Amino acid sequence: MREPYTTTTVYFQVDPQVPERRPIELAGETIRDGGLVAFPTETVYGLGANALDKAAVEKIFRAKGRPANDPLIVHIADLSHLPRLAVSVPELAYRLLDRFAPGALTLVLNKRETVPANLTAGMDTVAVRIPDHAVALALINAAGRPIAAPSANKFSRPSPTTAQHVVDDLEGRVDIILDGGPTAIGLESTILSLVGGAPQVLRPGGVALEELRAIVPDLTYQPRYLTGDDTASPSPGSMLKHYSPRATVILFRGEDDVAVWAAIKAFADDHDHVGVMTLEKDVRRFADLDVKVESLGADLDAAATRLFSALRALDSRGAKWILARAPDTTGVGLAIGDRLLRAAEGDVIDVKPRR
Ligand code: TXA
Ligand code: MG
Question: In angstroms, what is the span from residue 40 Cα to ligand 1's centroid?
Fold first, then answer.
């Protein structure tokens, strides 16, 4: 077993639009020196290290307790950095980046041999994205290096959407935390593989499949969830158990509104310490029950930003059960449903329509 990485954590609040120079320079120097910096992106907070330094990359795995078969995403500030990481980049990659970069789209490409093997979990491909956040871009530029960064949570915990989530999981395991406020999208990037055959979505995320199809009509997405170690998978990180709060999450799925809400309320009635996450419009349904409710806001975009913090909030409110309804799979609903299913570790109740 690897030793966990331990250090003294220094915390800086930074302006998310116009980050102050001193903390950014210090953080850039820390990256160059082989240290770890947690920073905001538009999706979730990342735990960053110099992507081209094998020992620095190893610290990420040690800090998170992340299995070595789960590769990292590399963050760059602009297209000029791409040739330092990838080879035989198809023309389609540039068309996609032209439309979606900076933004929540990660591309899987053939890696350059200088990219350390531990970063890619031994594979000959590398995942790359350009984050749409002034702090992330300033940090990459100050470091003068591409930055490897998974989400800045402990392994299998919900991804962090605030600096406080990072503190809760990684205090003492990261050299610097840059606090740029809550993240705008709240879910991780969409991962699209452009190697080996037709373009394949490996993880739904901040960029909707409908948007990608406008440029890549033949893209495929086949949800695959792994229950154990499986390095043969195209996306070894797509383990089913992920995003797990301490409470047991149960997902309710069904078309019939009345039947689904009746099933959720019946479960809540039968159990103690029940938490529910739901859109604001449905909060009132639980007014007469002894249930801890976290509102996910007005619509699915709001729900994406609140999903992970709601899981953490219900944990700290002492919920033993967390109930949620599976959303429609259009737009960002597809990514929300994916995260919920993994938080539930596949525990889904299919509610039959009433007749
Ligand atoms: O929005 C995001 O993508 C955030 C922010 C920090 O950028 N990052 C993030 O990283 O979600 P992480 O480590 O939590 O998820 C990265 C996933 C891995 O679990 C793996 O499934 C996939 O990216 N991945 C990385 N490299 C890959 C590769 N070469 N081939 C296939 N999948 C890869
Ligand atoms: Mg993650």
Answer: 15
Q: Which DSSP category does 177 fall into? A: E
DSSP string of 35-101, one letter each residue = --EEE--SSS-EEEEETT-HHHHHHHHHHHT--TTSPPEEE-SSGGGGGGTEES--HHHHHHHHHH-
**C-alpha R_g of the chain:** 20
Residues 11-23 pLDDT 10s: 999 999 999 999 9
Task: State how far the Cα of 165 lies from the Cα of 244, in Å rounded to an integer.
Answer: 14
pLDDT tens by residue, 214-248: 999 999 999 977 665 544 455 555 667 677 888 99
Q: Assess contact for 327 and 253: CB atoms under 8 A.
A: no
Q: Check pocket membership of 187 for ligand 1, CB cut-off 6 A.
A: no
Residue 120 Cβ contacting ligand 1 at under 6 Å: yes
- Vertex 276 angle, CA 271 and 281, to 5°: 135
Asked if residue 52 lies in contact with residue 34, where contact means CB atoms within 8 angstroms, the answer is no
Of 239, 193, 199, 232, which is closest to residue 217 (Cα–Cα)?
199
Torsion of CA 165, 171, 174, 175, to 10 degrees: 120
The C-alpha atoms of residue 226 and residue 128 are separated, in whole angstroms, by 23
Interacting residues of 22 by C-beta distance below 8 A, sequence separation 6+: none
CB atoms within 10 A of CB 243: 23
Please name the residue whose Cα sits nearest to atom 32 of ligand 1. Answer: 235
Ligand 1 pocket member 72 (CB < 6 A): yes
- Evaluated on CA atoms 111, 117, 123, 128, the torsion sign reads negative
pTM of the model: 0.95
Whole-angstrom Cα distance, residue 158 to residue 152? 10
